[in-house]
């Protein structure tokens, strides 16, 4: 079974999480046959390890992590690979992979341009 994890930075202000929760709700509505969880680098729960553990517990054999970051800053270049590697070591029975940061995708950048154009 394939599963998806949207991975964000996390923040002290709980309202920061609201778009991530909406993202997960939208995913579930549009892709009800593929499980999704949220995970955060710091300051919020669940952690990446906890989210992967939840997916494994329900039978996931392949987990794709989607970093919901605008670009490849230090967290994604340095911290994230270490976390992902530790999770792969902890869950060797699953296929674990990650996409580039969503902000590096041309379609995402175009969506921001279109959003901005609508504000004019």
Automatic annotation (TrEMBL):
An example Gene Ontology molecular-function term: metal ion binding
InterPro entries in UniProt: CbiX-like, Sirohydro_Cobaltochel/CbiX
Domain of life where this protein originates: Bacteria
UniProt keyword list: Lyase, Metal-binding
Family matches, as SUPFAM superfamilies: Chelatase
Protein name as annotated: Sirohydrochlorin cobaltochelatase
């Amino acid at each position: 079974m394939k599963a998806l994890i949207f991975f964000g930075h996390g923040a002290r202000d709980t309202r920061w999480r609201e778009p991530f929760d909406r993202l997960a709700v939208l995913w579930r509505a549009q892709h009800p046959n593929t499980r999704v969880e949220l995970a955060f680098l710091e300051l919020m729960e669940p952690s990446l390890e906890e989210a992967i553990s939840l997916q494994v517990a329900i039978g996931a054999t392949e987990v794709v992590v989607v970093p919901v970051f605008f670009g490849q800053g230090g967290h994604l270049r340095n911290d994230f690979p270490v976390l992902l590697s530790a999770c792969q070591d902890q869950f060797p029975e699953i296929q674990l992979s990650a996409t580039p940061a969503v902000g590096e995708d041309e379609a995402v950048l175009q969506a921001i341009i279109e959003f901005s154009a609508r504000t004019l």
